[in-house]
Each structure stands twice: as structure tokens, then as C-alpha cells.
């Protein structure tokens, strides 16, 4: 996960407080906290999908070694359903494929979140520079 910077603005009581700047910092802080939470959630989901993909891959590898006429059962709730080897392989391949797609989507979402925070930071910096120039 990328580095998220927090800025603390200390206002001198003698100096006039720029309410617009204070509001922008408050918005940035809330946006950064929200983004951090969303990025952590995306990381957790990526980890879970990676584990699921690995489990499906290992199961698929073990099933390959079995003869075609082996009776296989799929757990559904509290019961098991008899499945042919081909159906089990198809389901495992589908799980791996969907996990890959979801992982890619989550990584794109995470990079987007990090980019929006960076843009907000740049806007605040720009605002600070313009205030100092005045």
C-alpha cells in the first residue's frame, strides 16, 4: 500500500485564520482517512481472493492426478453432491478466473484511491503556495 501523508496545520492565535484553508485541510483529512479505510479493505479482499485462488489451484492439481472414474463430491451447505471430475475441474477453473478478475479490479480501485489522495494533497500544496505568495 502506498504511503499516506497526514498534514497538521498549526494556527497561530495572533494570525488571522484562513477559514477556506482550514476547511480544505479538514476535507483532505477526512478524505485521507476514508481512502485509507477503503485501501485496507481492498487489501483484505485481495488477500482473501488470493487464498481462495491458491486453494482452488491446489485442489485442481490434486484432482488431475486422480483417475477419471473417481467419485467426487462437492460440499453444498450441510450436504455433498456427487459430481463428475470434468464438472469439478470446470468449477475450479472458473473460481480461479473470477478471482483473477476481481483482484485486478481491486488493484485498479486501490491505485485510483491513492491517486485521488495525491491529487488532493497537491491541491492543498498549491493553495498554500498561492497564500504564501500573497
UniProtKB/TrEMBL annotation:
InterPro entries: PFD_beta-like, Prefoldin. GO terms for cellular component: cytoplasm; prefoldin complex. It comes from Hucho hucho (huchen). Keywords: Chaperone, Coiled coil. Binds specifically to cytosolic chaperonin (c-CPN) and transfers target proteins to it. Binds to nascent polypeptide chain and promotes folding in an environment in which there are many competing pathways for nonnative proteins. Residues 89-123 form a coiled coil. Signal peptide: none annotated. Heterohexamer of two PFD-alpha type and four PFD-beta type subunits. Belongs to the prefoldin subunit beta family. CDD domains: Prefoldin_1. This is Prefoldin subunit 1. The keyword Chaperone applies. Gene3D superfamilies: 1.10.287.370. It comes from the Eukaryota. One of its GO terms (molecular function) is unfolded protein binding. It holds the Pfam family Prefoldin_2.
